[in-house]
Amino acid sequence: MSDAPSTIAPEFAGFFAALQERALAFPCCDTCARFHWYPMKACPHCRSSVISWRRIAGTGSLYSWTTVRHAFDPAWRDRLPYIVALVEFPDAPGVRLIANVAADPESLAIGMAVTPCFDDGVAIGKSGVTFVPAGNA
Known about the structure:
Strand content: 25-35%
Oligomer: single chain
């Protein structure tokens, strides 16, 4: 989703810092070299606490999505319909990011390549990234 809370939890600081630089980064264990998402203080794979944020290319693929046609929050009423998707990244195996995809819902397909479009002037804790079908960025 493109609206993040105004105050973010410290474990997400690396993600939003990368967004400020128009990049994507995810936590990766320095011990077992595996990515994970949701950020945690210990690696969910080996339990090491030696974790760093690693940038990725950003190109991903659609794992799944849904088209939202009812605004559960009145602030989103003018954005209907919108797509909420799970995006996977070949250079961050195991990460599935929940994000918006700006596309015609009828044009989407499982495995479809998507690329990030970064919002200009991103401040930590504010909006950040939407995905579009590859070639439409």
